[in-house]
Amino acid sequence: MRRILFILLLAVPAAALPSIVGCRPAAELELSQKFQAAQKAFDQARSPDDFLKAAALYQEIRDRRGLCGAVLYNQGNAFMRAGSPGRAIAAYRQAKRYRPNDRFLEANLDYALAAQPQTPQRRPLIEHLLFWQNWISYPGKFHLAAAATAATFLLGVLALFIRRRLFARLAIAGVVVTLLLACSAAYDWYRFDYVVHGVVAHNDVVARKGYATSYEPAFTEPLAEGTEFRVLQRRGDWLLIRLPGNQQGWIDDDAAVVY
Amino acid sequence: MVIRTIVPVAMALLGATQLAAAEPEVIVELSRRRIYEGESAQYRVILNHVENPSPPQLPGFDDFDVTSLGEQSLNSRRVTIINGRRSEIVRYGRAYTYRLTPLQSGLLQIPAPVAHVDGKRIEGRELALEVVAPQDQDVVEMHITADPPSVYPMQPLTVTLSIAIKGLPDRFADRDPTTIQTTSPALQIPWVDDKQLPEGMQPTRDWRHWLSPLENRRGAGFGINNLGSESVFSLFDERRSSAFHPKPQIVHREDKDGRSVAYWQYEFKRHFTPKKIGRYRFGPVTLKGMLAAGTDAAGNLRGEDVYAVAPAIVVTVKDVPEAGRPDSYIGAVGQFSVGAELKPTNASVGDPMTLTLSLTGQGTLDYAYPPDLERNAPIAEQFKVYDATEETEGPTRKFTYSIRPLQQGIQQFPAIPVSYFDVHHQKYVTLHTKPIPIEVTEADRLSGGQIVGTPRGSAHNADDLQLRQEGIFANVTDLSAVRDQSVRPVDWLAAFGGAIALYLAVVAMVWQVRRRAGDLAAHRRQAAASRARQRLRDAAAEMKTRRFREGADHVRAALVGLVADMADLPEAGLTPRDVETHLSTFGLENGLVDRVRSLLQTCDAARYGASDAAVGNLLRDAQEVLPPLTKQLKAKRRSR
């Protein structure tokens, strides 16, 4: 009985491992067809409107089939060619969550940001502690945390049944690694799903001191397209935003893309 | 369980005396009136009509080893309202339960217990207990020894049970006497159960690790305390009775006829480390079973029921000697090293400093107390010393003192002498900590400038962005890169929590199983039914070969053993009357109790030549009775 329980307990993480380590089904046929159609539209586009139509096709894939780094990257390219660097930046930023080590993506994002005045930002302390935070993709962190959980579970079961000090020590080490990876995944969850980011999508957007056009401008200069911000609050069609320099103001949500 | 059985009995007694005057009284009860030497009886003293009694005194119990098994309040309050009239009956009482182990055989008088209530002395009544001496036999001889018989705390001690069994006759002479019978002789060894060991007597290994190497898979050897075993991978009730077989040694000694004959000698040695001074009793040990005592006319072995007792011994754990005890002795016995740490080492007069004195090693760490530094003149003259705190971390006991220097210019904290008793060399050892260099300056005031902080720096990461001038890179066209990468953290969180919950559940289950595995009484209960069934199968085998007497013995053993195992009682010596009493206490149906008693009486009758017909039905009746008996015993035990 104990042997059966032992084997069952080992089988639980073993069964979960394929999905954890990335044995996923291939791209669906319909998704592939839509992706190819969007790419064809992109290749045949000659005007900004054509590129906007290609971007819309990529958006349709996003809406129907979920987020994908490649789709977001291509959509960012389509926006860039359509002359909407603000929307492109938003797409590239999202793509970076799924393709953190893509040098082409990094270069294109830099290119889109080139025209924007950059305010250097201090990295939060947690990103110094979790130094790998920007090296691993958002889903990758969850897969790693799950793999570490499964491995720790296995070691815990071994330590429980075989009672060797080595297994106990490895299990403790596994708990530490799992907790670190879980923290890393949870931090991404917080900064990507709870914190709302945005990019100004038009030129000369006036940020105001209140959520109506009757309020005074918050800044002496209007915001340029591509200015990135965090959304602090939403009231009706207005967003309270905070700029990288910690300035705050209200803008109309039509003037920005949020993600 | 014992405590629980007191309640209905005592309540009945209280009810019976309801109409009597509510004068304080002492009621005494004895679970058995006749036992074999080496067995114990439960003795209950009930102080009736006493609200807050003190425990009774048991003077003159010199013939018994008395162990308290606990006490139980019998206070009750009953309110009745009939036709609007309210009446209230309040009863007070308390029951004290003891285990009496006779120290000699014969008809022993149990003296009257004495209680003092409101300055008045009241006594219970005397009772008699018949202690039957083991029969005169030379098949088995047992004795217990301790080496050394008197020790200091932390001095290792070995208790040995030696069992000598007479060698088999004739052509069987070279065979081990414990390998030929189907049922192993049963030993009752009090010091097997770790939970029953007196506080302060620590076995070097738990009972499982002690006995496991002696376990014999073929069933040769001795049963001990009805222990059962389980497979390495068994989890639930897959137990069987275990036999333990130490390597025998052949010795020659005289039998009762004065002839020198070969005996097979087996030794069970268990090592202890005493932690507290006192007198510790080991034993008595009983052995019951059928052993070969000769051959019959056909040359086959002839069995004989044997009951043997090894008298108890007392081991004295003595206090360390008064002579030569240094003033710096801190109550520790063993072997240690000492160290001291002082923080900070630079201070002004009056500043608090923390001194940590560490005692590390093997010994009575928990009984060590902090040295009195106020009595250490070099320290007391230079420092104000406050009371120490104590804590034990693994093999280290730490005493932490808060001290304050009294004068400036002190350059070192003096050495601290610490003495302990070394049990290996049986002498006191005094160690000294190393003096700690320190610097004590005159106390001064804090200037305003010292509390002004420095302005925080405004450094920031100003990596230059490298811009590309040649436009954007091309799209991703690789279809393998196209897949849904959406993250559903809640699902992952649920899986993570599920894994933790599953693991905790497994840990809890394994802990529970291991805890149950270490509970000897639970062991017995779980193996009870299977043992009884096995005994009935043995009975069937005997009766098939028309050995009715032996078959009846197996039937009797099955029923008595079942009750003894379920009630965690010694099986040896249980009479049909005892069994009936216990079954009634359990609250079994009267019809079933009568059937069991009738069966046991038939078994006893079979020994003295009952008719074959009567014995022939015995097995069938026992097979019919066993399932409902087992079921009801389990059900009643659960409900209690």
Description:
- The complex is a heterodimer of chains A (259) and B (640).
- Chain A contains 9 helices and 5 strands; from the N terminus they run αααααααααβββββ.
- Chain A has helices at residues 2-21, 29-44, 48-65, 69-81, 85-98, 103-113, 125-129, 138-162, 165-194, and strands at 196-200, 228-235, 238-242, 248-252, 256-258.
- In chain A, strands 4-3-2-1-5 form a 5-stranded antiparallel β-sheet.
- The model of chain A has no long low-confidence stretch (mean pLDDT 84).
- With 640 residues, chain B is of the alpha+beta class.
- Helices cover 25% and strands 35% of the residues of chain B.
- Chain B contains 9 helices and 36 strands.
- In chain B, the strands form 11 sheets. In chain B, strands 26, 28, 29, 30, 31, 33 and 34 form a 7-stranded mixed β-sheet that branches.
- In chain B, strand 5 and strand 6 (85-91) form a beta hairpin.
- The radius of gyration of chain B is 35 Å and the shape is globular.
- Residues 1-7, 12-21, 231-238 and 444-470 of chain B have low confidence and may be disordered.
- Chains A and B meet through helix 1, helix 2, helix 4, helix 6 and helix 8 of A and helix 4 of B.
Note the gap between the termini of chain A: 52 Å
Helix content of chain A: 55-70%
Number of strands of chain B: 36
**Helix and strand string of chain A, N-terminal first?**
HHHHHHHHHEEEEE
Poorly predicted runs of 5 or more residues of chain B:
1-7, 12-21, 231-238, 444-470
Mean pLDDT of chain B: 81
User: Strand content of the residues of chain B, in percent?
Assistant: 25-35%
Assign an overall shape of chain A.
globular
Approximately what portion of the residues of chain A adopt beta-strand conformation?
5-15%
Overall shape of chain B: it is globular
CA-atom Rg of chain B in angstroms: 35 Å
The whole-angstrom Rg of chain A is 23 Å
The pLDDT mean of chain A sits at 84
Helical/strand content category of chain B: alpha+beta
